[in-house]
């Protein structure tokens, strides 16, 4: 309205409105940025949880395999066939 003929210009009025609008936009941009970062963090956390779950299943499988191998070695040892003392077939 300062541009209208016959009205005195209000010093800083236009700048004050622009500054408030810019601050509101800046806050809105920051809020949007935070929402985006939060969504990315949630996706990352979900992927990490899936990875941990897969690793836990793999570790459980490996532990079961080691237990079976240990049982097999004990069985062979108890039967008098210790695989640790056998000569390799190329001797």
* H/I helix tally: 1
Low-confidence parts lasting 5 or more residues at pLDDT below 50?
none
**What fraction of residues sit in β-strands?**
under 5%
Could you spell the SSE succession in H and E letters? H
Largest sheet: none
The whole-number mean of residue pLDDT values reads 81
Count of strand segments: 0
Structural class from helices and strands? mainly alpha
Radius of gyration from CA coordinates: 37 Å
Per the principal axes of the C-alpha atoms, what is the gross shape?
Answer: rod-shaped
Distance between the termini: 104 Å
Q: Roughly how much helix do the residues carry, as a percent range?
A: over 70%
What can you see in these coordinates?
The chain is mainly α. Helix content is 73%, strand content 0%. The mean pLDDT is 81.
Sequence-ordered SSE layout with sheet pairings:
Elements: H1 13-78
Keywords:
91 residues; mainly alpha; 0% strand; rod-shaped
């Amino acid at each position: 309205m300062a541009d209208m003929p016959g009205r005195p210009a209000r010093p800083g009025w236009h700048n004050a409105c622009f500054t408030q609008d810019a601050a509101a936009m800046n806050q809105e941009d920051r809020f949007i940025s935070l929402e985006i970062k939060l969504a990315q963090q949630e996706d990352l956390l979900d992927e990490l949880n899936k990875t941990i779950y897969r690793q836990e299943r793999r570790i459980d499988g490996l532990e079961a395999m080691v237990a079976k191998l240990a049982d097999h070695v004990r069985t062979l040892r108890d039967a008098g066939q210790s695989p640790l003392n056998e000569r390799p077939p190329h001797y």
